[in-house]
Design goal:
The chain has 94 residues and is of the alpha+beta class. The chain has a single domain, classed as 2-Layer Sandwich (Alpha-Beta Plaits), CATH 3.30.70.1060. It has 2 helices and 4 strands. The protein has helices at 12-31, 56-64; strands at 2-8, 35-40, 46-51, 72-78. A 4-stranded antiparallel sheet has the order 2-3-1-4, covered by helices on one side. Residues 1-76 form the YCII-related domain. This is YCII-related domain-containing protein. Pfam families: YCII (PF03795).
Length: 94
């Protein structure tokens, strides 16, 4: 699986202007089964997306379609969890 970290490069006013389109993009990829979870970092300096395993080129193509490309930079981390807490065992299979 991947953990994608977004870091905002623009003021929150610019981020908020693109938020409805970003949420629509997220919903498309949740519906397609690509994304596991997503949310804003606190303090609100960016966000995080948990992504199911796929070829990295496919993930990069998906990320290129995000409207937040205009206001954020992305850091992609691939991870394979070998241990999880009770109730989170399914993360070992993504």
């Amino acid at each position: 699986m991947y953990i994608v970290e977004l870091n905002y490069l623009q003021p929150l006013t610019a981020v908020d202007a693109l938020l409805p389109q970003h949420i629509e993009w997220l919903q498309q990829h949740f519906a397609a089964g690509h994304f596991i979870s997503a949310g804003a970092k606190q303090p609100r300096t960016g966000g995080m997306i948990l992504v199911k395993d796929m070829p990295e080129a496919q993930l990069k193509s998906i990320l290129q379609q995000d409207p937040f490309q205009q206001v954020a930079e992305y850091r992609i981390n691939q991870v394979q969890f070998s241990r999880t807490g009770t109730g989170f065992e399914q993360l070992q299979h993504y």
